[in-house]
């Protein structure tokens, strides 16, 4: 059983040595992930884990990769994408140039879903999608844009439910057991490392998506990240969160208005 004070000491040491700040991640989630990592590497105590992590950078890189990977899929929660089409993209179309930030982009499924949405609405050519994550391995997978063909049936179904206007197979090339995302969907995407816990705003955006990331943070860090998004949005910019997330306990709650309460889409009001 992982001791809470030992866990705090380990996370502080990681922050001091590597600059990665996991101290405000939800404790139960952190314990669960560390326990899984330890079992997978035949490590029995937190002290043993700390000893290896703090002296072996390659091992620490593996730890970060496993610690931060989240489950994702293309057009996950199709109703959310329907709402984006209906309530957001028409307003984005009024801008001469559109900047979108996908924070915590993981392996890129959401990035390419948004790119497809923009393409179908005639907006991709004047858009830039900034796709960021803390996990370098996940970011590389996102850049590659290669997904298992076994997933395509489910992704196709999601796409159709999300109101897709074309054939989903138009957006990838099937090769052996893999699907390679069409190059046109990558041209306007910038992939970059960004740590929501410690890094600052780097641009002004019309739309920020951060879905199913805040659930892994404690309330203090959630509030800090919402403030970061507020600072990063242009006036009347849009913020999209995951369906289990909200602005309820954020001190910026009154600075946003609901666009779609059910799908957690907000507009920066002041």
TrEMBL record:
Record's keyword annotation contains Lipid biosynthesis: no
Keyword field contains Transferase: yes
Highest taxon in the source lineage: Bacteria
Alphabetical UniProt keywords: Methyltransferase, Transferase
PROSITE patterns linked: CHER
GO annotation, biological process: methylation
Span of domain CheR-type methyltransferase: 1-257
GO function terms (MF aspect): methyltransferase activity
Signal sequence segment: none
Protein name: CheR family methyltransferase
Lineage summary: Bacteria, Pseudomonadati, Bacteroidota, Cytophagia, Cytophagales
